[in-house]
Amino acid sequence: MKANIVIFIVSVFLSTLWYQATAQITVLNLRTELRSNPIGIDVAAPRLSWQLQGSGRSIRQEAYRVLVASSQEKLDQNIGDFWDSGKQLSNNSTHVIYAGRALQSRAAVFWKVKVYTNKGEGKWSDVASWTMGLLHYKDWTGRWIGFDQYFPSDNEKTGQLAARYFRKEFTTTKQIKQATAYIMGLGLYELYIDGKKIGDQVLAPVPTDYTKNIKYNVLDVTKSLSQGKHALGVILGNGRFYAMRQAKPYKVKTFGFPKLQMQLMLTYTDGSTEVIKTDDSWKGTTEGPITANNEYDGENYDARKELTGWANPDFNDKTWLKAAFVQEPGGNYEAHSEGMKVMQDIAPVSIVKKSEGKYILDFGQNFSGWVKMTVSGTCGTTVTLRFAESLTEDGELFTTNLRDAKATDHYILKGGGKETWEPRFTYHGFRYVEVSGYPGVASKSNFVGRFVYDDIPDAGAFVSSNALINQIYQNAWWGIASNYKGIPVDCPQRNERQPWLGDRPISAYGENFLFDNANFYNKWLEDIRLSQKEDGALPDVAPAFWRYYSDNVSWPGTYLLIADMLYQQTGDLRILEKHYPAMKKWMDYMQARYTGSGGIITKDSYGDWCFPPVTIEAGRGKIADKKYPSALIATSYYYHLLQTIARFSVLVSNDRDQADFLDRAAKMKIAFNVAFYNDAGYYGSNSLTDNLLPMSFGLVEDANREKLSNRIVEIVEKENRGHLSTGLIGTQWIMRTLTEIGRADLAYKIATKKTYPSWGYMVENGATTIWELWNGNTAHPKMNSQNHVMMLGDLLVWLYEDLAGIKSKERAFQTVIMKPQVVAGLDHVDASYKSVYGIIQSNWSKSKSAFEWKISIPANTKAEIYLPTTELSAILENNQKLKNNTDIQILRQEKSGTWLTIGSGDYQFRIK
């Protein structure tokens, strides 16, 4: 009897321990296609991801089970009628591909996951969901409507159209269970139901080449509808559909007049359905208050023409025209649940009265978006808002660098009291606003800046003991966000705003540490793929709003580098599988056309674009867009891309291609060194870029590496006096290459310079973002954007991977490699990054007496970390002497340090 009691007590005790271990494991942050509960996706087999969380260290997933169901009620009963994966022995918690029943258009899908770990079995996660979009062309029952013509309210000469207003009334006689709107409003739209705007998206949909693909939005409008009479209203703006400039059709692609297709899907509580769709029962007008709208030039709004109640039932639309059926744009329809929003409101820091009714607002920060204004005055008073990034010496707007973009909004008052207005279909890049014609006395409280960019959350944080680096980091954040406009534009202010491929090959890599931008760049990869010509050519701008197909390597090669970044940072193999054929086609195209007799790629367009003049004086007032084509750049880049696509070929199970690519690369390496290496120990023209590229890409023969390393150091240290001398190309590789050859101290010196040319020089001269040019304060204003990202190069990558020591070794941070560069002059770095597995943190500091390092590694991952000492007795972990255990193992020792492998969890190391 006593034995049975003992057995019972032990059993209860063990069960309690098992329960506690189980209860400690939580599954959270369930995402479908890297989105949280997305509405309207059109991926037939979506990718599912989740994260693990639990107390303790070294938590590893050993298996999982996913349930996918048609209702939450079924999931509550643990029934996966769409898919039950069963218990899968796998540590994979990212991009698990749905493998259940074929999903139909508009299906509502619910899912949850349970994990089994080395620390016990977790509980079922909370339920997540997604809905399917319209998967087939036949699912769209409406027609495209619009007005394919100019009206007296339009200005054909200047390329500004009045907004198109469309409306439709309908009545529901039954109780509504679910209502979903599917809408394509080109170029831009706002949707209203019963007078209220639907959703918080702005400048929707995101831009594409509309002859290739069109992004539609899916909006849940159930709460906006009830049984009874209703009205739909849609305003259409120009966007990129009706191009901002119409005068150069050979260069600028335009798609026609704004148009609309939408359908409202109603499901009633009795199970019946109804569709309200675009057809010729809709009515429209161009005689509304938005009399002109244009991305470059701004928006004109005449409040006297407001159509009060136009999107409400029983509005008198007798003077409106019958909507016309118009030709469809031609592109495939694709769901897109992300887009731009007003992400932040910014109050002006000062307002200066220049004359009666004229003021200059200073928002203290260069950003992109618009201004929301409150004003009172008499009917017909016009208030004009002009936007600029900087001021002249006499305190007026400096607008020369806008080229012919007017960047001006006009508002005409209706009178009768307080009026509040903001534009709908334009945006500006600015810090300063000139307000003229303002009635009465203006104050800062009458204006608010609205910061607009894609709805992308922050992914990282970085702060160091160096205030200048911290400011450069902040400037980079503002510049990157400002240029997220559904596509990665080069600048937000002048008459360009184009998604140049050459601006983003490595800066996008750094951006990923700051922003959760995987879906954003996935979309851009598709823009690039769809812009490919039949023969394989890729453009310099994608979507190809400008018809530039100059056939070079370094600009279109961004296609491969962005795909590589996304795979390395997120582990999504499907990206490579989808784009590999187009990448291979372009690689073959370039080699077939531009390989010279010596095996060198002969074609280049831009060279080391915008390298800095030797001195400010040498570049003062000069136009910096001169091109210096370089066969060395073209060939070295092509070699690097051969190595890259060879890796891709293995990942997509195409080993035969790998052998071919590697053979081509080996031959090109020989040809490159014959053509460009000088026995004096340098390459090409002996510029810093010409030497950086072969070193970074592995083109240097082993016997020559030390000599070339010395030459690179000599250029930076002696000839440049610690500055860079690189343009867009060289700056992408300079910081990491210096670090790889053992001179992180030189990279740090470059990063902390305040004199020309440097990032710090921009800060010292008042920059709050990143300039287009190193000498941006003195160069010719024709090409002088004060909000660009192309000159960031690999700085942000270096800050995270080298200074902070947060870098993926394999499987998108499932193994993290951490080797912070503890350079002289820097005493502290605190950084974090939200990987697909969770937050990785690295917080180190040094003093005369010790080096301290706090590390946090998410569950289901591990890290290889480097401590800068070989004396194991000097290392303390959580104030205990270092020793091998289940969480920490000594991996190896090198001349100056020790490598450890650690499991997930929180650690605190100290070296005395």
Overall domain count: 5
Number-wise, the strands total 47
Helical element count? 16
Low-confidence stretches: 1-23
Helical content band:
10-25%
CATH level-two architecture of the largest domain: Alpha/alpha barrel
Could you tell me the radius of gyration in angstroms?
30 Å
**Overall average pLDDT:** 95
Q: Briefly, what CATH class of the largest domain?
A: Mainly Alpha
Structural class: alpha+beta
CATH topology of the largest domain: Glycosyltransferase
Overall, the morphology is: globular
Distance between the termini: 58 Å
Biggest sheet, open or closed, and with what strands and sense?
A: 11 strands, mixed
Strand content is 25-35%
Structure, described:
The protein has 912 residues and is an alpha+beta fold. The protein has five domains: 26-132, Immunoglobulins (Immunoglobulin-like, Sandwich), CATH 2.60.40.10; 140-338, Galactose-binding domain-like (Jelly Rolls, Sandwich); 342-454, Galactose-binding domain-like (Jelly Rolls), CATH 2.60.120.260; 460-803, Glycosyltransferase; 815-911, Sandwich (Maltose phosphorylase, domain 3), CATH 2.60.420.10. Helices cover 22% and strands 30% of the residues. The longest helix has 23 residues, at 2-24. The chain is globular, with a radius of gyration of 30 Å. It is an enzyme of class 3 (hydrolase). One of its GO terms (molecular function) is alpha-L-rhamnosidase activity. Residues 458-802 form the Alpha-L-rhamnosidase six-hairpin glycosidase domain. This is alpha-L-rhamnosidase.
